[in-house]
Amino acid sequence: MPKKRTQASANIFDAVSAPTRIQTLNLLATKGPLAYSEIMELLKFEPTKDAGKFVYHLRNLVSSGLVDLERGTKKYKITELGTKVITFSQDLEEYSLKKSGRLVVRTSKYVIEEFDRSKITLSLIEEAGVPPDLAEKISTEAEERLLQLPTRYLTAPLIREFVNAILIEKGLEDYRHKLTRLGMPVHDVTRAMDDASTQALNTDAVHAAAGNQVMREYMLLNALPKEIADAHLSGQIHISNSDVWMLKPSSLYHDLRLFLKHGLNAQNANLAATPIRPPRDLAEALMLTLDVLEPFGKEIAGEQCIDYFNLFLSPYIRKTPAEDVKKRLRSFLARLSLMNWRGFGCVTLGLEVTVPQHLKNATAVTPEGVKSENYQHYGEDARKVLWWLLEAALEQSEVTPLLNPHLILKFRPECLTDKYDNLLKKAHELAAKFGTLYIANLTRESEDASSYMATGERIGAEWTKDWEVDTLRTGCLDNVSINLPRIAYEARKNDERFFETLEKTIRTAEKALQIKDKVIGDRMRQKLLPYLRQHVTNESYYRQKYATRAISIIGLNEAVKFHIGYQLHEEPMAQHFAVQVLEHLTSLMNSISEKTGTRLSLSGISEEEASQRLTEHDVDRYGFSMVYAQGRKEHPYYTYFAALPDEVEISQDEKLQLEGKIHPMLKGGHFTPIALNGENTANSLLRKSKEICEKHSIGLFAYTYTLSYCYSCQKTFRGYKQRCPTCGTTQITHYARQSTRYLPLAWWSHLGRLSLIERPR
Question: Which end of the chain has the lower number of beta carbons within 10 A, N or C?
Answer without folding.
Answer: C
